[in-house]
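Mods, move this if it's the wrong board.
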Amino acid sequence: MIQLKNENDIAGLRASCRLLADLHKHLESEVKPGMSTGEIDQYIHEFITFGGGTPAFLGYMGFPASACISVNEQIIHGIPGSYVIQPADIVSIDIGIELDGYYSDAAQTICMEKVDPEVKKMVDVTRESLYLGIQQVIPGNRVSHIGKAVSEHVQQYKY
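Not the wrong board. Structure tokens:
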């Protein structure tokens, strides 16, 4: 059953999401070749705790880090460690934050400066498809409207 949120709940969710959005924005300029995924995770941990939150993934079902960091073809939920980011890597970072009892969770993919142009194009097209799908989240639409918007966009590029 869906539980409706009251004004306080909505404010709490917004605060958690705002902290997460700020963190993702900072990561766009902070993540660089030469950093290890463990160093990125440490940055994320410090940012969250400085902002008054708690890393939601840390300790969840034994997960040992504050974020899931996957590089290149690595499947989601990568565990940060000693891998050093290379100039041609793509880095996907999934983060969850608990702030005053409210949770936010979002992922992003960051392309390093020498990523293959075809890979960069794929990342850009999939990001565009996300926003096209979000535009379909309006009263009266169904989940199928979201899927159709995403599908039609990526199929133009043979994805």
